[in-house]
Design a protein that fits this description.
By secondary structure, the protein is of the alpha/beta class. It has 13 helices and 15 strands. The N terminus and C terminus are likely disordered. Bound molecules: zinc ion (ZN). Zinc ion binds next to loops.
Length: about 425
């Protein structure tokens, strides 16, 4: 790793090493010193110093394990959080909360489908309701928790601002509204690629050198993990495949532009197209449009999957071009990134093997030298709990949220 050479770099070399090391640990949850040295090209002396500092801040725990009676003891470093914490995550159409203890073991989890949230006050009320159920279920009261990490499906667009293509009410000013509604200190977390990190952890050992996760959910993205680190890009906007324009005059996207992949293929986009089509003409379909209008996009997609399996003509006509667009997306990721492995997830495709298979089949026409390379393409295996655990780990490290300030004068570098 090269130390920063420009004075405009916002992180010092020592902070950068710390971030790289912690990020690697979050991507694995636990690792040995030699695994870190191998993957990160950081001298063992620096690793030991940074790990001791992270231990002092109660963000890392050291464990010595002996393999067999005569084996040399092996030291493993594991991510932890200073105290018990509740994590609450908003996607566009679902809110989930889970309580983790200091060793990141899940004490309880609760989720709720959302149809429409109009304001941060509305969103805070949903979380309050969810917390009431969760505390009753687990016997852990709000006073037993140090804070609530509120994770929003959004991206940082600068040092202090962020925007969300799936949560129109969300911005950086919502924290006091949640504080007041919940009676608990709330910290806003905008984690980078938590789903891809959770998928990476769920892969079998040895971990691949590079992995991409195609996520088709309330949003669409393709984040890459290379040698245990997510690829952020210079503005933490890498992996936003969902906002690649595929039809310049297509439907309006939550990002404000038109014809993005996400505006065609996300759960809410598909749900909207299905309802519109059924309103125009419901011939050949068993679906009740009035029922779908009252359901969250997650529920609509589930109903569409069931109908598709029974040969529903309207759903088939909607899904065939969708498979082709997602196959194009899969080809694009592979051609751009050349990852060793691709996982596919998100509620639009999870537990729908025939849809994943169709996308995989169609993708061969888009993959460069597809017949000559072996890329493992598999359905994702991470659970919601895994994703929330990644967010909990991340929330312990506020520096992780800093983005590097854009270089004001690249020519001077
Ligand atoms: Zn967009």
């Amino acid at each position: 790793m090269r130390p920063p050479t420009s004075s405009s770099d916002s992180l010092s070399f020592s902070k950068l090493s710390e971030r790289v090391i912690f990020e690697f640990l979050v991507s694995r949850m636990r690792a040995t010193l030699s695994q870190m040295a191998d993957h990160l090209d950081i001298p063992t002396s620096t690793l030991s110093r940074v790990l001791s500092e992270l231990e002092d801040r109660q963000m890392v725990a050291r464990r010595t394990e002996r393999s067999g009676r005569r084996g040399r003891p092996e030291v493993t470093f594991q991510v932890r959080i200073p105290s018990r914490k509740v994590v609450c995550q908003f996607d566009g159409s679902q809110v989930t909360a889970a309580i983790f203890d200091h060793e990141l073991r899940c004490i309880g989890q609760q989720g709720e489908g959302l149809i429409r949230i109009d304001s941060p006050e509305d969103a805070a009320r949903q979380v309050d309701k969810l917390l009431r159920i969760l505390t009753e279920k687990t016997g852990v009261s709000r006073t037993d928790m140090s804070s609530l990490a509120l994770s929003l499906n959004a991206v940082w667009t600068g040092r202090n601002t962020f925007s969300s293509s799936v949560l129109p009410w969300a911005d950086q000013t919502v924290t006091p509204i949640f504080d007041k509604a919940l009676g608990l200190p709330v910290e806003l977390v905008v984690p980078f690629a938590p789903r891809a990190m959770a998928e990476y952890q769920a892969l079998s050992v040895p971990f691949p050198d590079s992995m991409a996760h195609l996520l088709v959910d309330d949003g669409v993205s393709a984040h890459c993990i290379v040698r245990g680190r997510p690829l952020r890009g210079s503005s933490s906007l890498a992996g936003e495949l969902g906002h690649v324009t595929i039809t310049p005059d297509g439907p309006t996207c939550g990002c404000g532009r038109r014809g993005c992949l996400e505006a065609w293929c996300s759960g809410p986009a598909l749900s909207r197209q299905l309802i519109e089509q059924l309103r125009r003409d419901r011939a050949g379909s068993s679906l009740e449009v009035e029922q779908l209008e009252e359901s969250s996009p997650r529920r609509v997609i589930q109903r569409a999957w069931e109908a598709w399996q029974q040969g529903d003509e309207v759903v088939k006509n909607l899904m065939e071009p969708t498979f082709n667009r997602l196959a194009w997306a899969l080809g694009a990721i592979i051609n751009f990134m050349d990852p060793q492995q691709v996982t596919i997830g998100g509620y639009v495709l999870v537990n729908k093997p025939a849809w994943v298979e169709r996308i995989r089949e169609l993708s061969t026409q888009y993959i460069l030298r597809g017949d000559k390379r072996s890329i493992l393409i598999e359905p994702g295996r991470a659970t919601r709990e895994d994703e929330l655990r990644v967010i909990a780990a991340w929330s312990a490290y506020p520096q992780m949220l800093e983005t590097r300030a854009p270089n004001a004068n690249p020519a001077a570098d």
